[in-house]
Design goal:
The chain crosses the membrane at residues 14-34, 46-66, 72-94, 106-127, 147-168, 246-266, 286-304, 316-338, 350-371, 383-406. The chain has 408 residues and is an all-alpha fold. 77% of the residues lie in helices and 0% in strands. It has helices spanning 3-28, 37-63, 66-71, 74-97, 104-112, 118-129, 138-183, 209-246, 249-262, 264-270, 278-288, 291-309, 314-341, 349-357, 366-374, 378-407. It starts with a helix and ends with a helix.
Length: 408
């Protein structure tokens, strides 16, 4: 397979994303103005609550079996390595370049979460159709490719809607706090050490200082109790936040999809030409098909505002590109080669290729959904997505050539 063929295969899904994003940008521009920010926000809620869970559930329930989960056990480990290394590198970027504080989670999210869904569903099967493919007979290759890609999308969604969701949620909370603090600035003549009293009374005069110093030892027990109370409140808030993140609609859909996929009698009720409840599966599959177009339209709409308002430093964008398309692919080659030599992987070059390509993908589209959901960094996300997806075509074709050369 030549470099030009790989370029065509790699560019097709990227161009689809960019074309749909252009439609969203036009609909939100002054020429059309029918896709305003309120409309994008409402559509995003539907994507989060309905379309994305339907896509995750339908793909998992159809493709996953208990045998595949056992034999492909290294795939979730591989995806986890991508997320861990990407997060660490993103953290180093924010510590070195110091962007706005509320953008730290956005940067770490774009460095760690790759588009493990729709791009792979297009790229991996398309590789099987090319002449000179090292992956065997076309029909068998495409069947395996769809199974690998669907499982990758499902596992990736679980990581995205737990780890990445947590990062974006924290950024959203921080952004709201910073915005609230900006709206209520401390006056220049106010002493920051002065204790604020709810009823607006002035602080006590110096005549009472001695009395207060006598009372302090008597209140030490109460202060200790307050510290313990604050600790338990923080612990309770943290556990509550984790609980809410785990019960996000996409994560619930992933759990249900795994359960139905690995239990044969449940799967026979919903999936297959003779399944009695096949209409449920078909309906959810149709709903899931709307996920990618809606996400991309929202991304394009946000892009118009992002290009006008974003203050992202060029060095920050270049650093993200360097991590996504140079460091992570090199790490991926080392990880997959080491796992193969240790006997962790089945002897299928297409499976090895998929694991390597997982390190080379542009950021997950769902990051834009989360940015819209938590009202943080939508403009910056759109600009990051524009440059990373423009660079994805040459990067994917280059690394695909390298991976095929290694596996041939």
């Amino acid at each position: 397979m030549g470099l030009f063929s790989l370029f065509v295969v790699a560019s097709r899904p990227i161009l689809q994303v960019l074309l749909m994003a252009l439609v969203g940008a036009f609909l939100s521009s002054g020429y059309s103005n029918i896709f305003k920010s309120d409309a994008r926000r409402d559509m995003n809620k539907v994507v989060f609550s309905v379309f994305t869970p339907a896509l995750i559930y339908s793909s998992l329930a159809e493709t996953v079996t208990i045998q595949e989960i056992i034999s492909w056990w290294f795939m979730p480990v591989n995806i986890g390595i991508v997320f861990v290394i990407g997060t660490i590198l993103g953290w180093l970027i924010v510590k070195i370049l110091r962007p706005e504080q509320y953008l730290e989670g956005v940067v770490m999210a774009t460095c760690s979460a790759g588009n493990l869904g729709n791009l792979l569903l297009i790229i991996i099967p398309a590789i099987c159709d090319e002449d000179g493919s090292p992956f065997g007979e076309t029909s068998i290759c495409k069947t395996r490719a769809l199974s690998y890609s669907s499982l990758s999308m499902a596992l990736g969604s679980f990581f995205i809607w737990s780890h990445t969701y947590s990062l974006m949620r924290k950024s959203g909370i921080l952004y709201e706090k910073l915005r609230h603090d900006d709206e209520l600035p401390i006056s220049s003549d106010q002493n920051p050490d002065t204790i604020k009293v709810e009823d607006g009374e002035a602080s006590k005069g110096t005549d009472q200082d001695a009395e207060n110093q006598i009372i302090v030892p008597l209140l030490s027990g109460e202060e200790l109790g307050k510290k313990k109370s604050k600790f338990w409140e923080k612990l309770n808030d943290t556990l509550h936040m984790i609980y809410e993140e785990l019960l996000a609609p996409p994560n619930i859909a992933a759990i249900i999809g795994f359960v139905i996929g690995v239990i044969p009698w449940l799967k026979s009720l919903l999936i297959g030409d003779t399944a009695p409840l096949r209409v449920i599966q078909d309906s959810l599959t149709s709903l899931g098909a709307g996920t990618i177009p809606c996400i991309t339209l929202i991304l394009g709409g946000n892009l118009m505002e992002g290009l006008r308002k974003s203050t992202l430093k060029p060095m920050l964008i270049l650093s993200i590109l360097f991590i996504k398309y140079i460091i992570l692919p090199l790490v991926g080659i080392a990880i997959v080669k080491a796992a193969a030599q240790l006997g962790f992987l089945p002897k299928d070059p297409l499976y090895h290729y998929l694991l390597m390509i997982q390190f080379s993908l542009p950021p997950a589209m769902n990051i834009g959904t989360m940015a819209q959901l938590f009202n943080v960094g939508q403009d910056e996300c759109s600009v990051i997505f524009l440059w990373t997806y423009l660079a994805a075509t040459p990067a994917l074709s280059f690394w695909s050539t390298i991976y095929l050369g290694i596996l041939s």
